[in-house]
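pipeline stage [seq->struct] | target=cytochrome-c oxidase | organism=Psychroflexus salinarum | residues=731
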Amino acid sequence: MELQQFHYDNKIVKNFLFATVIWGVVGMSVGLLLAFMFIFPDVTDGISWLSFGRLRPLHTNAVIFAFVGNAIFAGVYYSTQRLLKARMFSDALSKINFWGWQLIIVAAAITLPLGYTSSKEYAELEWPIDIMIAVVWVVFGWNLIGTILKRRQRHLYVAIWFYLATFVTVAVLHIFNSLALPVNLLKSYSAYAGVQDALVQWWYGHNAVAFFLTTPFLGLMYYFVPKAANRPVYSYKLSIIHFWSLIFIYIWAGPHHLLYTALPDWAQNLGVTFSIMLLMPSWGGMINGLLTLRGAWDKVRTDPVLKFFVVAITGYGMATFEGPMLSLKNVNAIAHFTDWIIAHVHVGALAWNGFLTFGMIYWLVPRLFKTKLFSVGLANVHFWLGTLGIVMYALPMYVAGFLQASMWKQFNPDGSLFYGNFLETVTEIMPMYWMRAIGGSLYIIGTFVMIYNVIRTAKSGSKVEDELAEAAALSRGGKRKRGEKFHTWLERKPIQLTILATIAILIGGIVQIIPTLLVKSNIPTISTVKPYTPLELEGRDLYIREGCVGCHSQMVRPFRSEVERYGEYAKAGEFVYDRPFLWGSKRTGPDLLRVGGKYSDNWHFNHMYDPQSTSSGSIMPSYQWLIKSELDKSSTEDKMQTMADLGVPYSDEEIENAQASMLAQGTEIQTNLYNDPDFVKAYEADKAYAEENNLDFVEMKNREIVALIAYLQRLGTDIKIKTNQEATTSN
């Protein structure tokens, strides 16, 4: 049979690898800065775009989509060409994929610190960037599927299955979770509200972990681990079971992030059931990866690439054991909202994603530059620094999580809370935050060691060139042969394989989400719950802009300890006008669902200006720019109209009178602030300073802080009593 010659595109792989390293340093550096902010909360004092609330989503997006995302593309582009014996379908699509993805990352790096965010976990980017993501992702899928269709290798290896499932599922998740109605170029409101928004978000959020941080990396594991060990995959049959059971079960597990919340019980229980089942396929993949090294363990002692792979697969096993365990209601009651979750997430991110990426880089760079790794010793130094960093990061966070949960739930003999002041918990876990910062420092130092090693390796090699290869053209086979097993036939039918994978991932989402959206009895309404006033709506948008949801939850669970500490537990009907929902994932500070009326307007003013003045020992940074900045009211009517278009019952008259309403409510809050003589003195001094220096003076009633106070004072006030709450099911 005549062989055809062609060239593998190595340059695109090199580009994605370099982007992986660069953005990895950026994402990790921001994460390290955030870790030190827990210890030195005023380290960026007064700089709005460097505040914790704005940088946290930048950190998560940079690590997930910039670092891990570029690593996925590098590994997929390298392995796909060799598994299919074909150059990528289109060089132009490859370049669009690369530069488009970098443009998205830069857009995220600009908009998130400026406060343009939807606040939805791992999906914070606003609607124009969401559209860019969808377009570039489709380009990637087009290139991948086009390469599959022009392949010279009939059989589709297991890694390709995972790549296809990743493409399809991430597209579905991203598009449906990002549905929103724009107000303007950089502001939108979610198409879903309250409980429905929470379910769709965690259907996306959990499966972003599943299908962006897991399935593509499993594909990379199935390619690079056998290559590095020079051994075949342990079990072909296990890989089949692993693939189909994982992609089918994973998609159901999202509701385990919402246990004991206002989500309907049936959805919570479905999430728990499938999360427990998820342990089996996850560990099947881990076992398949580790047992691939049978007969090659002596090589692990000397090869840093295999060292990184072993710890990565082990980290995957630990994280995927912990996930189902955390979905058990009795365990979730302890762990949720605590630093335990932070430890769990980072075992997966630092060990599984980070170490697999590092191992892949150490394997690829010498081959791309046609040379040997500059220093095996430095690679081993990186390995031990990274491993120690993971341990020093994760273990203190586990301890902190247990300590938080224990302290929150302690009672005195008379039934009062033993630790009534939330800050007592924060003070107690400060040593753990120090250890986390040290662990993170070790991890990033190891990364810099790798960068030096990679640069020296590249300099000692030759320029990256496309690689010559040859293979016979694929003769188009047809029907299933007699005696041929179904899956063997399926592995040479990419279209059928993709269709079946799509069906597998759609079932769980359809069963969970459609009833929650369409069956109104799932979301009972409460007659006393009304839409936000115009000023409260603006204040809520400021709350979102400043990333307050990153530290404060708005979800009181039905536990004695939480009801005693925060007030009446949350009801589904309370959130029907919340677009997006703001239930939160972590309590660095106390829950705010019932904070309305608990403190005076002046207390909130002082708390935002100098948290230590109202809460001794607080690690919350100050938000002084809210006190100084004028509230932008120019788009309030557009915001209300957009909300009305989404079903919030704002009348035309309310929208027309928005400015007058804001002025009246702002004036009332300003009057309340005047009741404090110290406030009046400072305010008059501010006014005098503006007049002396010919500066525009903004009255307090028109400043951002007043809108935020209006929102905070509204929270929870629609629920007046603890028992016999009036609730009616909407028809």
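stage status: PASS
auto-comment: The CA atoms of residues 17 and 709 lie 47 Å apart. Confidence is low (pLDDT under 50) at residues 721-731.
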